[in-house]
Amino acid sequence: MDFFNPMFWADDSGRYTIWGSVYPPLNFLFLKSARWLLFGDLRQADGFALRDIARPMIPWILLAYGAATLFIFRQDLWRGFTDFQKALLFVACTLSPPMLFTIERGNLIIFALGFLALAFARPGWARAFAIGVLINIKPYFALYLSQENALFSAREILSLPSSISAFTYVLQTYFSQGGSLSIAGFDIAMITSIIELTRWLGIAGLLAVLALAGRNVPEHFALAAMTVAITNLGVWVGGYSFIFYFVLIPIFLRMAYWKLYLVLITLILLPIDVITILRDNIGDQYAYLSDATVSVDWQLGLGAIARPAVNFCMLLAISFEVFSKYARWPRAFQVGFQGADKIFGNLLHRDRRIFDTHRHIMPS
Question: Is residue 79 situated within a structural domain?
Fold first, then answer.
């Protein structure tokens, strides 16, 4: 419904005043064009009716989503990868939980992938154009140059969270419903405060080390770091944002701690949700794809707990690398980090000759 409901409102002048949309106008321009191609001048009562008559067209919509994914694999971004390797990665990306979640919801974020790849692959005006389009698709991309309202249930938030703020959301929802919890003497209010403080300190720390690094850090590394920050911003960013990491794979492979980043990305993309932590029957629900009412067993998988934590570790790791390798001040403080970086690098057994970022062919 992330596709059909906004499409229904695309031609309605009350999309911002009545519906309260947060989509920028560029999304509605795209949706108007898509609606005209799919339905012509046909009008329906609501997004659900629009979805119902679009059932025969679902394969074509899925094909468009698949084609959008192909734009990730630009030759200038994936230089050094064979066609077979890129084909395997395409299959892996398409079948990963974040991509399946995005397709199932029909979220328009998937059409940002091509522009995100362009932003990483081409410097100059092409990068500026791509970032401009990205901001007009999803405004949180303005981080390249918080609202958390109770719009979702705790179950929906835990479907595929990207930020540790999902834990805050769930705990606050539980508390508002009369629940109580105490861990090592800390109540829910204290636990959520610690989580939120940790999250904002992590994001602020990354932005601070990027400011300290200045022009020393390659632009594509800085863009990758800010993309990681975006996925950690809050529950309103959504688990869809994990699909950005498909574009970052060739960037991470050029960074010093590439083995660590690949392990973290693998944990995020693996279907670890099959490991069930909690199960609850929520009764009979209408299933659109099967067009039937079915009994639904809601399951809390390991991924709902692991992915936000792993993603925050990604934020800390990339902050550490930027600071230890590129930050210029304060020097005395940086020396200590560089010593830790040397020890950490030896633990990862990296070949330093491969990662000379100043000589690498990747454009900045």
Answer: no
* Residue-by-residue DSSP string for 66-111: HHHHHTT--TTTSTT--HHHHHHHHHHHHTSHHHHHHHHHT-GGGG
Q: Which residues contact 80 (CB under 8 A, 6 or more apart)?
A: none
What are the two backbone dihedrals, phi and then psi, of residue 277, each rounded to the nearest 5 degrees? -100, -40
Query: What residue numbers bound the domain in which 188 lies?
Result: 150-355
Residue 339 has a CB neighbour count (10 Å cut-off) of 11
> Digits of tens for pLDDT over the chain (364 positions)?
567 777 777 777 777 777 777 677 777 788 788 777 777 777 766 767 777 777 777 788 788 888 888 888 887 888 888 889 989 998 888 888 888 888 877 777 888 888 888 888 887 778 888 888 887 777 766 666 533 444 456 677 777 888 998 888 888 888 887 777 777 777 888 899 999 999 999 999 999 999 888 888 888 899 999 999 999 988 878 788 898 999 999 999 999 999 999 999 999 999 998 898 888 887 888 776 666 788 888 888 899 899 999 999 999 999 999 998 887 755 545 555 555 555 555 555 444 443 344 334 444 4
Total domains in the fold of the chain? 1
Tokens of 271: 């279907």
Q: Within a domain: residue 257?
A: yes
Q: Is residue 105 part of a domain?
A: no
* DSSP codes, 146-169: ----S-S-HHHHTTS--STHHHHH
Domain presence at residue 322: yes
> What are the residues facing 183 on neighbouring strands?
186
Q: Is-contact 328 214, C-beta < 8 A?
A: yes
